[in-house]
Amino acid sequence: MRPTLQTVADAVGVSRSTVSNAYSRPDQLSPELRDRILSTAARLGYSGPDPTARSLRRGRVGSIGVLFTGQLTYAFTDPFAIQFLIGLAEAAEHHNTGLLLLPLSEDDEEAAARSVREALVDGFCVYCVPSDWYRSLAQINPRGLPVVGAELRDREAGAMFVGIDEAAATRAAGEHLIRLGHRRLAVIIDRGTPGRGTGPLRVDDFDTLPHYVARERLRGYRDAFTAAGVDWPTVTVVNAAANTRAEGAAAAAHVLDRADRPTAVFAITDLLAFGVLDALRARGLRAGRDVSVIGFDDIPDAATARLTTVRQPAVERGRAAGVLLLDPPPEAADRQVVLPTELIVRASTGPAPTATPTERN
Amino acid sequence: MRPTLQTVADAVGVSRSTVSNAYSRPDQLSPELRDRILSTAARLGYSGPDPTARSLRRGRVGSIGVLFTGQLTYAFTDPFAIQFLIGLAEAAEHHNTGLLLLPLSEDDEEAAARSVREALVDGFCVYCVPSDWYRSLAQINPRGLPVVGAELRDREAGAMFVGIDEAAATRAAGEHLIRLGHRRLAVIIDRGTPGRGTGPLRVDDFDTLPHYVARERLRGYRDAFTAAGVDWPTVTVVNAAANTRAEGAAAAAHVLDRADRPTAVFAITDLLAFGVLDALRARGLRAGRDVSVIGFDDIPDAATARLTTVRQPAVERGRAAGVLLLDPPPEAADRQVVLPTELIVRASTGPAPTATPTERN
DNA sequence: AGTAGCTTCTGTATCGATACAGTACGCGCT
DNA sequence: AGCGCGTACTGTATCGATACAGAAGCTACT
Fold first, then answer.
1. Which site in A221, B14, B46, B202 is 20 to 30 Å from A245, CA atoms measured?
2. Distance A21 CA to D9 C1' (A)
């Protein structure tokens, strides 16, 4: 039988409590006794208090749950997501806490709910979960644990929140394009429709996009363009099958080969924007001259690629979420964090070509 | 006070066990009673059995620990690592199990040991841990939980193991280069020395490299080249500061600008190989003509980049590790899995240039 | 009627620890 | 001696569930 605290206590001739203290509260007993306890424990093959029992008694398990849906692949392919996770992990490590990745099945809602209900965690962070998957954070977590969300509605519902003003960020990017004279825009998003591949999306779809982020970022662009008098329905929205460079290029092909090629393309992530740059290169088009390209995230490679993009503090977002979960500020106001974004202008955007594209160069 | 099983049992007028069964063994009671229990539970705000208490009683927590060291950043920047994790997550999801990421501090060995000792997991998977960090898997896990390793010595120690024959894989790659007439080789590795930046490594260092993978892959190359009569010490080993494209390019610069430029460069990962390709391009050199480049992993982008590389089944490795942990085969022999690798020849390797490189085009 | 067998539910023991109040004891001070 | 106080340790109650043996009730068959 595996040894327990009691086994060790009996062997040393002290009470169970004292052995417990030897591990968890070294200041509560004399160093000699502690050594004696630890060495007999080692002799008996006892490797410290059972984590499960300890958690039950203490009421804290020492890990926070990270909720995903669908493809874990997605979550790990997205550089932003990874940065976020790194920030979260930093905060967690600081609190001696682990991260429990909880892949939630998208098909079996029952099983997903069970995963959440049965997870051994002290709190949840909603990571890559489509908006229509849950109505509110309360639904995700009937257990009353702390949960931090990343969507505006979470913020409005008074839940803990860490995010950015997505729409304001893309509005700034849109205004930049407007100032440069662009009037024909194409937008490339991913996860626009579940299960559908690459292809144009009807623009009136976009208010019902399953992902909050896509919805909001599109809204920001629309606001910038309609404010400048551009008719929004002329904007083409193309869905990419995945958030990858290759799919970005494939999606870009849908608009670049048209006669009324847009003068500017907004990609909802930098990764997709890289694909757009690839597609331009493959066609002998110059980014920032023939077609302006603008991304989102400012991932590390964006600077090298000279990509104009919206920078968001990804690591900081993760860290802030971790801090909220691990020691929530007493003031409710401090439990909602909105981080700043910044438009980083690089060489991939420039004045809209005045002539028709084919006449240039 | 939060409701417990007892609270619900009292409200419904049944025993605690019956309420427990309502959640965990629906076949043990009549559907009517079950409904009655679940609805009063909902009314009382009881959200199912407490996971901690359940884990204590059941002796299973429903998650497996993934051990890292150092930068979580590293673990998530490496495409192979991510593929591995995806495979692991797949197996885990299948068993209704979560993944607990355990970042182990490299500085504070005491704290790291405590993390392992106190982790709420059913088993461990050693993920990105340098070889000199532990002597054997037994040391990592004094609790007697299942552990799966990825190093040969783990296999030799009879522990659970999932891996590839690293040295054989690179030997095949080396033989390919030899057949093409290459005799001057440079090798680019990362994590060659902890804390050191980009730069050449003394070749006699490599048997003491902290990472098993680097050691073994170098060994395979050495074997191939020495078998062909090439003096191994003429091979330059360059350490890259990180496993990134940019650092790969920086490391490549150390050998490409020399007079006796190698005719072939082996990068220990595809990511580094991409950097080498970038460095070649920047110098107007043609991959596969002027300098052959060979990578390792066969990550998705490798095909597009036409990179010759060694393919290893990354996702499969993760999945196999998960299966071993989650339901270990009864036969000891089946608890050690060696997966196949395959040399994928693409355009980045070609015959060694016969004249000196500068004379050719 | 008796008993066998099934389903449905109950009751107690147990998982392995920590919290907290309490005891014992030594020491300095008056 | 008597009192106060701090340190070192003990003992019991408790955390919230599940396992398992057994009881009760009901049908079916001889």
1. A221
2. 10
Q: pLDDT at residue B202 above 80?
A: no
pLDDT of residue B138: 77
Query: Does the structural domain B166-311+342-359 have CATH classification 3.40.50.2300?
Result: yes
Q: Where in chain A is the domain with CATH 3.40.50.2300?
A: 63-165+315-339, 166-311+342-359
Cβ B60 vs Cβ B16: under 8 Å: no
Identify the CA nearest to B99 among candidates A115, A55, A26, A329.
A115
> Cβ of residue B95 near strand C, that is under 7 Å?
no
Which residue ranges does chain B devote to CATH 1.10.260.40? 5-58
Within an 8 Å CB–CB cutoff, is residue A208 touching chain B?
no
Least confident among A75-89, B44-58, B270-284, B337-351: A75-89
CA distance linking residue A41 with residue A48, whole number of Å: 8
Query: Which class is domain A1-44?
Result: mainly alpha
- The per-residue pLDDT for A357 is 45
Domain B63-165+315-339 CATH assignment equals 3.40.50.2300: yes
Question: Is the Cβ atom of A61 within 7 Å of strand D at any atom?
Answer: no
Distance in angstroms (rounded) separating the CA atoms of residues A244 and A248: 6
Nearest CA in chain A to B98: A102
Written as six digits, the tokens of A42 are 């080692």
**Sign for the pseudo-dihedral over CA of B219, B225, B226, B228:** positive
The region of weakest confidence among A171-180, B130-139, B209-218, B280-289 is: B130-139
**What pLDDT score does B360 carry?**
39
**pLDDT for B233 beyond 90:** no
Residue of B23, B97, B118 best to disrupt the A interface, most CBs of A under 10 A: B118
Residues of chain A with pLDDT under 50: 357-361
- Do B100 and A100 count as a contact with CB atoms less than 8 A apart? yes
Determine the CATH number of domain B5-58: 1.10.260.40
The answer to whether B86 contacts A72, with C-beta atoms less than 8 Å apart, is: yes
